[in-house]
Amino acid sequence: MAEMTVTRDERRFGFIVHPRSMPELRKMAFFHTVPIFPFGSQHFIKSQCLRRKVVKPIFSFPSIVSSQNKSCAGKVFCIFLMPDQILNLQATAVDLIEVACEKLRDWGPEMIGLGGLTGAIGSRGKEIAQRVNTPVTTGNSLTVYSSLAVFERLQRDFDISPAARKIVIVGFPGSISLAIARALAKRGFNLLLVNRRKTPFLDRLTSELRESYRAEIEVTEDLHQALSEARVVFTATSTGRIIDSDHLPAGSIIIDIAQPRDVIETRKKRNDVLVIDGGVVTLPVRSPNQRRFANWETNDVPACLAETMILALERVMFKKG
C-alpha cells in the first residue's frame, strides 16, 4: 500500500478487517504475502497464514470529504484469518487485532473501527479498547440505523405494514439483531426471532420486549420453518452462509447485514426473491479518488467503516473505564 500525504487538519482513521471467504483469502495472499500461497490447498493457505500470524495493510482512503467540508484519510489492515478460525481461536484473533492497532498507532488515527468478526470477539471490542490507546468502535450503531433506513424504503415501496405477517430476525440476540428487534417492536411489528438455542438470557430479553412494547414475539430454533413463514427477514449472524436462497419462498425480502453474508450466493439468480445488503453507506460524492472497497459498488462502504469515518471526522473521543 502506497504511503499517503495527509494534511495537518485532516483527520485519520484505521479499520481492521478479515477475509470473508476462501477466494478473498487467496486473493489477499497473492497480493500481500508470499505468491505461492494462493496455489496451495485451502488447509495449507489457512494454516500458513495462521502460523505466520499475517497482519497486512490492504487498502487506503486518501481523502474522504464530508458535506461540511471536513476531510479524513484512512488505512485498512487485515488479519489473515478466516471466520471459522476467528471464532475458534478468539484469543489468537484478539492478539492479531492488537498487532494491527499497534501498526496503526504511529500513523496516528483518531478512531479505529473493527469490521466483521473482529468486532464480535473480545467482548465486542471491549478487550481491544482496553489494550490500545486509540478509541475503538464496532460500527454497530450506524449498521443498525442504515439497515432500518433500508427497511423504511421497502415499507413504502412494497406497502409493508405492522398488520402483515411477522418479521423474522435471524441472529438474535446479537447486538445488531437486538437493536433492530427493539426498533421494530416499538413500531408495532410482530417478530419471530431465530436463535440456535434457548437460554435464560434469551428468555429475559424476549420478556422485556413483550412487556415494553406489547408486541407479539415468538422465538424458534427452526430457521427453515421461520423463513417459510415470513415475507421480510433481517439476518445478522456471526458465522455467515446459513440461508440457501434456493429454499426461500417466492416474494421473500431479505435484508442481509452479516459479514460474511448469511445468504449463500448461487449461480442461478432468482427474480422472485429480493436480497439486499443491509448496513451499506455511500460516501459523499464530493470526495476525490472515489474507489471500490472490497466487493461493494464504487463509493459504497460497510456502515461499520462509515461510522469509523464519521467519528474520526467529528474527532469524537471516548473516556476509558
Report on the architecture of this protein:
The chain has two domains: 11-138 and 281-313, no CATH class; 142-278, NAD(P)-binding Rossmann-like Domain (Rossmann fold, 3-Layer(aba) Sandwich). The strands form four sheets. It has a six-stranded parallel beta sheet, sandwiched between helices. 35% of the residues lie in helices and 21% in strands. It is globular. Helix 6 packs across helix 10 (303-313) and helix 7 (175-186) packs parallel to helix 8. It has helices at 22-32, 42-52, 83-88, 90-105, 126-131, 140-158, 175-186, 200-213, 223-229, 303-313; strands at 11-17, 55-65, 71-79, 111-114, 136-137, 167-170, 191-194, 217-220, 232-235, 243-244, 253-256, 263-264, 274-277, 280-282, 300-302.
Number of domain modules: 2
What is the CA-CA span between the terminal residues? 35 Å
Mean pLDDT: 89
| Envelope shape | globular
In DSSP terms (H or I, runs of 4 or more residues), the helix count works out at 10
Strand ordering within the main sheet: 8-7-6-9-11-13
Task: Tally the beta strands.
Answer: 15
**Main sheet: strands, sense, barrel:** 6 strands, parallel
Spell the H/E element sequence. Answer: EHHEEHHEHEHEHEHEHEEEEEEEH
Give the percentage of residues in beta strands: 15-25%
SSE-based structural type: alpha/beta
CA radius of gyration is 20 Å
Low-confidence stretches: none
Helix content bin: 25-40%
